[in-house]
Design goal:
Layout (H helix, E strand, L loop, with lengths): L10 E7 L1 H4 L9 H9 L6 E5 L7 H9 L1 H4 L3 E5 L11 H42 L7 E6 L20 H20 L2 H10 L9 H13 L3 H13 L14 H14 L2 E4 H4 L21 H15 L17 H18 L4 H14 L4 H12 L8 H6 L3 H6 L8 H4 L4 H9 L32 E3 L3 E5 L8 E8 L10 E5 L2 E6 L7 E7 L10 E5 L7 H13 L11 E9 L1
Parallel strand pairs: 1-2, 1-3, 3-4, 4-5
Antiparallel strand pairs: 6-13, 7-12, 8-11, 8-13, 9-10, 9-12
Helix pairs in contact: 2-12, 3-5, 5-10, 5-20, 6-7, 7-8, 8-9, 13-14, 14-19, 15-19
Length: about 575
């Protein structure tokens, strides 16, 4: 909020938090503060809701707001935060602690040090400041909102499978996951659970994909309590491993917020309860735009619960929020359209994107015009800012904010996700051809994860032993593959891998741990069968000594560098089909 008028006789309520509290993908057209103001407006006394939420706000930002509370002349405060608390800037002392944890106990030790010795003390220091600011006698009421995560719908990053292992352990793990994937495909959920029970290998809880598969199996078998536990393990698995990941409130943060509210006698709104599907107790995906940001209905559910804490409810919670302002329905619909973009950008499966597009149309059928403009931006190959479609989309305040050069404006890469086909299907149009389909790396979301605060590499890193890419079946039969690669963790004398197309071996991938190698092969004619048009690259085996890596990585941490805690089977600088 750029301007806060004097409160006069109104009761001032300040909303403090991060992007979820600001209304990511919906603001400034619609925010939780707007909804809360509407919920409190029909009370006996006038209320002024002040929106102090900020995208990206961390613990230090919130601590500064807490210190300024005496100057805000607030009567009540709503704390809606915690998603960014597992994203910490590290000090020199932090690096030393992490180095020791990794050296002595591996990645589980690294994560434990991060959560228990870095995150937890900072969270508790913030809450102590907040307790002091709201101590008895100040007259400031506090409502604590515990964030929730879209557990059943949001899939973990496909590039992260498990940690570095010895070759025999890695082979056993790959065999296990192949068995699990086949059981999932056939819907044999008991076999999925049985596969995990039979393995003697423990990943220490560092594989979100493994925990997600267990959760899905429990859910399909009707054990929703075990499903929630496993999904929460999947959500928390990567926190503290120093790789980049989306914001999320971990179980540790949620527990601290609940304990703080209970100790201080503060009002508590636990979104794990408010946003649950009554039939399962699991989060209802309809209340979310993505992993943790709320949909319009999620905002209403959450802020209505907050309003009940600030004044007793006088009407049924089924009452409408209030009459729509001009454009409100379109803004909500565009928010779901932006969510489909955001989810596609983060590599979510087609079902997730399809649901957001369907909800957008249900909110306001006229959003089809915006969907048409977006499809044009994805397929015309022209810079977005030169087009009338971009200008039309940016008439809506939330589209103007989030379709900018630092967010979702790389429409060329977005075009290579399933979103293009799904938009065309929703509009009843033929699927347009992919842009620059000859580049096999374009638009891929399965490169090995980035380290926190580290540079983005200028090449693709494969954290899986097999790299797959589908080729356009309409290409000319006179085609040649140009592949520039290296194998940073394979021994120089390791057995060569293979390059296959349509089930035929076309070349050998020789180990190249230190230099980029170039391989060019002629490709046979493509066919109409998708399996015959798939390029499959089997990397040479990684020769890895986990103990040696642990010592090397702990040394990196001690000197201010951050290691990548996943195996890198191969790196690709160029993979292009030349006609």
């Amino acid at each position: 909020m750029a301007y806060v008028p004097a409160k006069a006789d109104a009761r001032r309520v300040v909303l403090v938090g991060e992007s979820a509290a600001l209304g990511f993908l919906l603001d400034p057209g619609l925010t939780p503060a707007d909804v809360l103001q509407g919920e409190l407006a029909d009370g006996a006394e006038p209320v002024q809701c002040v929106d102090l939420a900020r995208t990206g706000a961390g613990i230090a930002d919130l601590a500064g707001l807490v210190e300024s509370l005496p100057h805000l002349d607030a009567d009540a405060m709503v704390l809606f935060a915690g998603n960014n608390w597992s994203l910490q800037n590290l000090t020199v002392a932090d690096h030393d602690r992490l180095s020791e944890g990794l050296r002595t106990r591996g990645l589980t030790g690294l994560r434990d040090v991060f959560t228990r010795q870095i995150v937890l003390p900072r969270v508790r220091a913030l809450l102590r400041r907040l307790e002091k600011a709201t101590a008895e006698g100040t007259g400031l009421d506090l409502v604590v909102v515990v964030p929730e995560f879209n557990l059943p719908e949001w899939r973990p990053d496909a590039s992260w499978d498990t940690t570095l292992m010895a070759p025999d352990e890695a082979a056993a793990w790959a065999e296990l996951h192949a068995e699990i994937e086949e059981s999932e495909r056939l819907g044999r959920w008991s076999e999925v659970l049985g596969a995990f029970e039979r393995t003697a290998r423990s990943d220490g809880g560092t594989s979100p994909l493994a925990a997600w598969a267990r959760a899905r199996a429990h859910h399909e078998l009707g054990d929703h309590g075990s499903a929630r536990t496993a999904w929460e393990e999947a959500r928390d698995a990567v926190c503290g491993l120093l790789i980049a990941h989306t914001p999320r409130a971990t179980a540790l943060v949620q527990a601290e917020l609940c304990a703080f509210a209970q100790r201080g006698g503060h009002a508590l709104v636990d979104l794990r309860e408010e946003l649950a599907d009554p039939s399962t107790g699991l989060p209802d995906p309809g209340y979310f735009l993505d992993y943790c940001h709320l949909s319009p209905s999620g905002m209403v559910k959450a802020m209505r619960a907050v309003a009940r804490c600030l004044r007793p409810a006088t009407e049924s919670d089924t009452r409408p929020v209030g009459p729509d302002r001009p454009g409100d329905r379109r803004i909500r619909a565009v928010g779901h359209l932006l969510s489909a973009c955001h989810s596609a950008w983060l590599g979510q499966p087609p079902d997730v994107l399809r649901r957001q597009l369907a909800v957008a149309v249900a909110e306001d059928p006229s959003v089809s015009a915006d969907m048409s403009d977006l499809l044009a931006l994805l397929t015309n190959g022209v810079p977005a800012w030169l087009t009338p479609e971009y200008d039309r989309l940016c008439r809506w305040p939330n589209a103007e904010r989030y379709l900018n050069p630092t967010a979702l404006s790389d429409f060329g890469s977005l075009a290579r996700t399933p979103l293009t086909e799904l938009l065309a299907q929703a509009l009843g149009r033929p699927v347009p051809p992919r842009i620059d389909s000859a580049d096999l790396l374009a638009g891929r979301g399965d490169s090995a994860p980035r380290i926190v605060n580290g540079p983005t590499p200028a090449y693709f890193r494969s954290a899986a032993p097999v790299f797959r890419a589908a080729l356009d079946p309409s290409r000319s039969s006179q085609a040649r593959l140009r592949l520039m690669y290296r194998t940073p963790q394979a021994a120089s004398d390791a057995k060569s891998g293979t390059l296959e197309f349509g089930g035929r071996v076309l070349g050998r991938i020789a180990p190249s741990p230190h230099e980029w190698s170039l391989l060019e092969v002629n490709l046979p004619a493509a066919t109409g069968a998708s399996s015959s048009n798939e390029l499959v690259l089997h990397w040479p085996a990684v020769q890895h000594d986990e103990t040696h890596w642990r010592q090397q990585a702990s040394g990196m941490l001690a000197t201010g560098r951050i290691p990548l805690p996943v195996p890198v089977f191969g790196e690709i600088f160029e993979a292009r089909v030349l006609v």
